[in-house]
Target: DNA-3-methyladenine glycosylase I
Amino acid sequence: MGPVTGDDGIDRCPWAGGPGVMRDYHDREWGNRVHGEAAYLERLTLEAFQSGLSWSTILNKREAFREVFAGFDADTVATYDEGDAARLMTDPRIVRNRLKIAAAITNARATVALREQEGLEALVLSFRPEQPPAPATTEEMATTSPESKALSKELKKRGFAFVGPTTMFALMEAIGVFDPHLVGCHRRGTATMGG
Model:
């Protein structure tokens, strides 16, 4: 399936065809470069929590995630202990999954440790594909790539959790490591890729 025309007459990736939170995310954010450690840690964390769930569920809980994870400040989240994890497990505003909560804390600690090297943002961007995909249909869209597999392997080596190749491919799409929009989507070629 190629881009679909919405009720507003605009062509979009099919998953963002109807009005609502998914369309807003598609039009305003998906595929745009983000900057800074907290922005990268937020997207990495949310992609991990999304695994097995719909992205709209995560978007609808995003403000609560930001609140309970201190705006994704790695220094703060890295200090979370068992008591904090237990508290988060009782908060109905977020996805209450013990392993994913533990991974968020682990990943904050790994992010802090990465500062002694290149840092989370530079590490992720170093896996940008030389030949970015340009799918015209959803059938041509990938869910992993050699780069997402390599990024997953490297992050695991650096102490990160819940960073499988599919999750890392979704992260790379979301933060504009490459333009993820279908050819023909009004957002294709307009996202802010940055350098």
